[in-house]
Amino acid sequence: MSESESTAGYLDMDLLRFTTAGSVDDGKSTLIGRLLYDSKAIFEDQLEAMEKSSKSRGDENVNLALLTDGLRSEREQGITIDVAYRYFATPKRKFIIADTPGHIQYTRNMVTGASTANLAILLVDARKGVIEQTCRHAFIANLLRIQHIVVCVNKMDLVDWSEATYNQIVDDFKKFASRLDNIVEITFIPVSALLGDNIVDKSTNMPWYQGPAMLYHLETVYIGADHNHVEARFPVQWVIRPHSDKWHDFRGFAGRIAGGVFKPGDPIKVMPSGFESTIKAIHTMDGELDEAFPPMSVAITLNDEIDISRGDMLVKPNSTPEPRQDVEAMICWFSSTKKLAGRGKYILRHTTKEVKAIVSEVKYKVNINTLHKIEDDLIFNHNDIGRISLRTSAPLIADSYKANRISGSFVLIDEQTNETVAAGMII
Amino acid sequence: MAQDYTITHLKQLESEAIYILRETAAQFEKPVLLFSGGKDSIVMAYLAKKAFWPAKLPFPLLHVDTGHNFPETMEYRDRFVEEMGADLKVASVQKAIDEGKVIEETGPYASRNGLQTVALLEGLEEGQYDAALGGGRRDEEKARAKERFFSHRDAFGQWDPKNQRPELWNIFNGRKHHGEHFRVFPLSNWTEMDIWQYIKLENIELPNLYFSHERDCFVRNGVIMGITDFMELLPEEQANIKKMTVRFRTIGDATCTGAALSTASSLDDIIAEVAAARQTERGTRADDKRSETAMEDRKKEGYF
Questions:
Q1: How confident is the model at residue A3 (pLDDT cuts 50, 70, 90)?
Q2: Residue B16 needs a FRET pair 20 to 30 A away by CA distance; which of A34, A294, B240, B290 works?
Q3: Lowest-pLDDT range, A243-247, B69-73, B299-303?
Q4: B168 contacts A115? CB cut-off 8 A
């Protein structure tokens, strides 16, 4: 391939963000290590550093987990504590992996990693089948509205490449998944991450499997419909006023499109004020655009002078979200030092807006292993997931999380410590 | 809807960085952009220009000047700042040394790299900046892989990797107590390759140190170092000075930034070289080789 060709290809690539949840035992690190290594995202000096520290720890093989577990305390304890982001690219796509620990005490890390992912890889050990952890990961992926799930049935080499074992896992998972409502697509792939079967190349050990290898699937899964392109949403981040002679009257509303498609001439409505106008132009430093859609960052000018500031949202008059001060949501509680209880007061950050919020009702918690509701213990400890109602000090211009991940999500912040204590998905 | 509404991955990264830059301007009272003259900070400053265009940058640039710069870096810096119409502040390590606030390492292995942290924290305090935008990327080094976009620092400028705020969707929590500040990394999700491809796509001018040139060099601990006025050479190093054809993959303090043998003289050459590279760019940084968690340790103390 010539240089210009490689550049041309690079400029054409799109981006897939995926999350992997699981423990070292599932072969997660081996899987990630192989994807990184085979796509040349691991470099010699990193490999040497890993070999050196594997040896000094007494590990027999190169411990690929050392690549992701970079923090001193993680290396000492041999565990991943935090979300680690990893990058690799093939000629078709660039990939961002949010690598999160799988144990239940790290649910909040899984939720964090899942919040920006298009796809989730759930690792199943073929010898163990669908276990509690698999269901928990599937539940979180579904809660965070990851639309594409890959059930990666690993360690097929240890079950003699058995089609029957694989089919049993597929059936068990499908039975469980029928209770999940958001997932658009589930793909099952039998692999051996250790031996490389069905990771980059199709396995010759499982002729009964007709589907794609993992990498091919990651490269080709269609994610063009993951954003909401119907209901126009533009949270205003910043108002650009140049105060220069050339741009004397310029007032550009800067932000990142959260939903829908905006075009010059389109009628818009400013929320919550309700004033209406039309789009004069959509600006970038590279020139004006004919249309803008998620996740583009642009500046919009209007044909009328309206008072608009950060926290307002531009929408279309024909699809206006109802401003609401009472919010029902699923939340995941993050704080390890404070608990959530009824009447608790927090700062709520939603798109570019910040308001105060009080917990008006705690409805239930979810046992994320069985999906059963817990109604007799309503105190949220860290990693707890459940449903609450909030009353806000000012109206939110929000959608349901199901309709839009950006305008349907929020975080709660503790007023004293300023820590982010919860993530919320509006119902 | 028949139309396919997608944008390329570089445009997604650009859009994300612009979003972060605007959030920083909106959430903090007095942000500053750390500008080293290296390619990452150049790309970050360029993206800042895009984020606020047609207005000027709503924050100044801050150069932490070790005093050990390649002259090319300084020429480039001054020209770049002028073309941007930006406001440049300088935090000087030399000044900190002169004022007796830090003691300089001596001997052939002396580096001012550690002193940068002092000058940086002083510079931030002096300007009362509450957010410092840095060009750090998560793919650079393992301790950076867990860094947040909005990275909280306590009143001593320290980073606590075990107690970081979770970041979900595109909601960033920049709330802080008096005296605390944030480091913000808009390029978190970029790789070295992304940076180079973007430089090419946008036709961004770089300091010529990045391109292959001839230079008097010597080798220390397997790293090729350029000869500068600031470095003391061991006798055997002195005896083995050679003219080499090199380029720099990162640009930092001249005393600890190694060069790589290279004939790459254009962006296309560099991109081909990066694509074929088997060493990370920080592989030539002597400062990272001091220990396995050298970067984490420096970051905890307040390094970039």
A1: very low
A2: A34
A3: B299-303
A4: yes
Residues B72-113 have pLDDT tens digits of 888 899 999 999 889 999 988 777 778 777 777 777 667 677
**Would you say domain B9-194+293-301 falls under CATH 3.40.50.620?**
yes
CB contact under 8 A, B9 and A15: yes
Query: Amino acid letter at A269?
Result: K
- Report whether A351 contacts A258 (CB < 8 A): yes
For B165, left (φ over 0), alpha (ψ -120 to 50), or beta?
A: beta
What would the CATH number be for the domain defined by A233-315?
Answer: 2.40.30.10
Instruction: Give the residue-averaged pLDDT of B161-170.
Output: 85
Q: Tell me which fold the domain A324-426 belongs to.
A: Elongation Factor Tu (Ef-tu); domain 3 (2.40.30)
Coarse DSSP helix, strand, coil percentages of chain B, rounded to the nearest 5 percent: 40, 15, 45
What's residue A424's pLDDT?
Answer: 97
The pLDDT value recorded for residue B149 is 94
Chain A, residues 388-407, CB within 8 A of chain B, namely 405-406
Q: How many contacts (CB atoms, under 8 Å) link A and B? A: 206
**Residue limits of CATH 3.40.50.620 in chain B:** 9-194+293-301
Give the per-residue pLDDT at A301.
98
In whole angstroms, give the CA distance from residue A317 to residue A279. 13
- Across the range A330-335, mean pLDDT stands at 94
| Nearest alpha-carbon partner for A327 in A346, A300, A307, A303 | A346
How far off is chain B from A157, nearest CA to CA, in Å?
31
Contact B55 A46 (CB under 8 A): no
The number of angstroms, rounded, from the C-alpha of A355 to the middle of its chain's C-alpha atoms is 24
Higher pLDDT, A311 or B276: A311
Please spell the DSSP secondary structure of A145-204, one letter per residue. T--EEEEEEE-GGGGTT-HHHHHHHHHHHHHHHTT--S--EEEEEE-BTTTTBTTTB--S
The answer to whether the CB of A215 falls within 8 A of the CB of A90 is: yes
CB-closest option in A71, A96, A406 to B169: A406
Cα B62–chain centre separation = 12
Cis link prior to A267 (omega < 30° from 0)?
no
User: Looking at domain A3-220, which of 3.40.50.300, 3.40.50.720, 3.40.50.1370, 3.40.50.880 is its CATH number?
Assistant: 3.40.50.300
* A3-220 and A233-315, same CATH topology: no
**Region of poorest pLDDT, from A242-246, A295-299, B15-19:** A242-246
- The domain spans of chain A are 3-220, 233-315, 324-426
Q: Name the DSSP letter for residue A320.
A: P
For residue B287, give the nearest of B303, B300, B263, B273 by alpha carbon: B303
- Which pLDDT score, from 0 to 100, does residue B169 have? 95
Give the span between the Cα atoms of A236 and A248, in whole angstroms.
21
Test A7 with B200 for CB contact under 8 angstroms. yes
Whole-angstrom Cα distance, residue A49 to residue B294? Answer: 13
From the list B7, B201, B280, the residue facing A296 with the nearest CB is B7
pLDDT at residue B225, as a whole number: 87
Taking only the tens place, the pLDDT of each residue in A87-97 is 888 888 999 99
User: Does the pLDDT of residue B243 top 50, yes or no?
Assistant: yes
